[in-house]
Structures are given as C-alpha cells and as structure tokens.
Design a protein that fits this description.
Layout: E1 2-4, E2 7-8, H1 11-14, E3 18-21, E4 27-31, E5 36-40, E6 53-61, E7 68-75, E8 81-85, E9 91-99, E10 102-111, E11 116-119, E12 124-125, E13 129-130, E14 135-143, E15 149-159
Parallel strand pairs: 1-15, 2-10
Antiparallel strand pairs: 3-11, 4-5, 6-14, 7-15, 8-11, 8-14, 9-10, 9-12, 9-13
Bound molecules: (2S)-(carbamoylamino)(hydroxy)ethanoic acid and nickel (II) ion.
Length: about 160
Amino acid sequence: MDIIRPQPLTKAAFARFGEVLQTEGADELVINEGMATRFHDLAKVDVAPDAGRPAISIFRAKPRRLPLDIAMFERHPLASQAFYPISGRPWLVVVASDDAGRPGEIHAFLAGGTQGVNYARSVWHHPLLALEDVSDFLVVDRAGDDNLQEFRLDRRCRLEI
Ligand SMILES: NC(=O)N[C@@H](O)C(=O)O
Ligand code: NI
C-alpha cells in the first residue's frame, strides 16, 4: 500500500486545487471606523452553473484515526466548496489531480486551525477530515444538486503524519 504524508498547507502548493482561506497574505481593509479589519475576497464562490445558489452550512465532523486509509475521492462539477475550521484545530486536506476523469496524483496537506480551503469546481478531494476531536467547520458550497461524483480507488493509500 502506498504511503502518503501531508505537507504544510500553503497558498502556492494548493493553488492548482483552489484557494487557501487565511488572514496571512490577504488583502487587508480597515473598516468600521478602525474597529475591524476585513481580510477581503479570499476565494471565489463558484456555484453559478444551472442557476445555482450559494449555501452556508456548518459541518460537525468526528475526528479521524491515523493512519488513515484513503479509499475514495469525490468532486462537485457544479460547485466550489469551502471549509473553514470554526473549532480552531488542525485538519487534513487530501486532493488529487484529474487523470482522464478519474483521480490521478494524490496530494495531502496538514491545515492549521486558522486555515481553510476553497476547492475549485470539479477538484477531486477526500470528504472532510477532522483531527483530534469533534470539530465544527463553516462550509460554503451550492444549495441543492451539485452533480456529486464519487470514485473508489483501485488501490487504497495510507496517510501517515
Ligand atoms: N457531503 C458533503 O456535503 N461533504 C463533502 O462534499 C465533503 O467534501 O466533505
Ligand atoms: Ni466535497
């Protein structure tokens, strides 16, 4: 079984899969008469195809046990999907390139407790992977059908930290 190890989540390393949601390096705007800072326009919410409507949800995720077997990927052809950790714990992001309509090269990232991601439309990713304890995530994606596609890997791989 192939072993994969997560790399630190950075904007540059994740750029081909979407955006990293973090205050570091963001466009900062002082607002509300100096009482707040807006970290502006962090990612593109892309749910417009077929008159899609954005939805804001909270996912309460149970922690995954490590090592973790990666057996499947999914993607949302009609929608981007953003996750931001409300509970402030580290979590895992596992994505794959597209290889003729199936997941190709796998990339794993360890996200900090103040880092989120926005998966671009149709990016292969593993469903939410929380760590350490039950954790809440703010999620921005598409209300209704997003034409979810799932793919079971022929060969599982094992994620170790
Ligand atoms: N099912 C659901 O909405 N979640 C997945 O899309 C996911 O990426 O976690
Ligand atoms: Ni998803």
